[in-house]
């Protein structure tokens, strides 16, 4: 891209203090980093494409938050501690009015989690953002998807469903007049990755995942990888007052909680003998945690309401259909 170097210098270089484990940051052919002893490096990449994961007209500060938070959330789901991020940016033209608020928000969140931008690429084309985050997790202890066993308890952090409602508001301006609509729109873009929760669950949880495609779908990944099933009591699903006000119907709120994607809350399983530890292990994390069900034998994902079976057809999560 013409002016690429100016752009990189102006917006991406020297925006953060150096981490000690970054030996060489932006400006050379590669970054050089030095991980600590006895850790595995957790690495995850996510792409956000304008028109699919955000609207090109969306607030650039919110887009930056969503892009980085969704990546950090993958580290959180493994119990990893964030360390470094690389950023590949494709945009049609150098757009400083977009980049300024984008970078402000990006570096604010990066600094909050102590994560340093160590490199990237800048190219011309349709607006898209690809981030690769890296973090550390003690060797052999990462929270994976394949560790759930029959009898384990199923927990989620935070409240579920707001992101789906926010997406609806973004796509249908007529909905902006509904109660809490503007708050939900912001909630779609702004989430707090559950890094502290993930770290605190090391040695406590048997499996974990972050909710990016909807609880049913993401819990489904744990069940499949672990060869088990599950039973969920929908009346236990944590939903916000904001969502209840918007939908004015608690059954709809429960359905939203089951299918809402891009929540970036954690869903995790805990063996019965560790159940009593969950509250104290997470006490310092500032996150609400709710037990919503239990792992069952393979092949069953049963929904019930205080013991009464229910059968709902739930739509999948589709990002933006534009
Ligand atoms: P190369 O031609 O070797 O790929 P570039 O000209 O693409 O180098 O980038 C120059 C330097 O700026 C590299 O260190 C690269 O990591 C960094 N960089 C380029 N674009 C970005 C970006 N969007 N975010 C962070 N660092 C970037
Ligand atoms: Mg390059």
TrEMBL record:
Gene Ontology molecular functions: ATP binding; magnesium ion binding; thiamine-phosphate kinase activity
Keyword Nucleotide-binding applies: yes
Pathway stated in the Swiss-Prot or TrEMBL entry: Cofactor biosynthesis; thiamine diphosphate biosynthesis; thiamine diphosphate from thiamine phosphate: step 1/1
Gene3D superfamilies: PurM-like C-terminal domain, PurM-like, N-terminal domain
Enzyme Commission number(s) from the entry: 2.7.4.16
Entry binding sites for substrate: 53, 262, 317
Family recorded in the similarity comment: Belongs to the thiamine-monophosphate kinase family.
Name assigned to this protein: Thiamine-monophosphate kinase
GO BP annotation list: thiamine biosynthetic process; thiamine diphosphate biosynthetic process
InterPro entries, alphabetized: PurM-like_C_dom (IPR010918), PurM-like_C_sf (IPR036676), PurM-like_N (IPR016188), PurM-like_N_sf (IPR036921), ThiL-like (IPR006283)
PurM-like N-terminal domain: residues covered: 27-137
Stated role: Catalyzes the ATP-dependent phosphorylation of thiamine-monophosphate (TMP) to form thiamine-pyrophosphate (TPP), the active form of vitamin B1.
Domain PurM-like C-terminal: 150-302
PANTHER family, alphabetized: THIAMINE-MONOPHOSPHATE KINASE (PTHR30270:SF0)
Entry binding sites for Mg(2+) 5: 213
Ranges in a coiled coil: none
UniProt entry keywords in alphabetical sequence: ATP-binding, Kinase, Magnesium, Metal-binding, Nucleotide-binding, Thiamine biosynthesis, Transferase
Superkingdom of origin: Bacteria
Binding site for Mg(2+) 4: 29, 44, 74
Main enzyme class: transferase
SUPFAM superfamilies: PurM C-terminal domain-like, PurM N-terminal domain-like
Binding site for Mg(2+) 1: 45-46, 121
HAMAP family to which the protein is assigned, alphabetical: TMP_kinase
Chain positions recorded as Mg(2+) 3 binding sites: 29, 74, 210
Catalytic reaction equation(s): thiamine phosphate + ATP = thiamine diphosphate + ADP
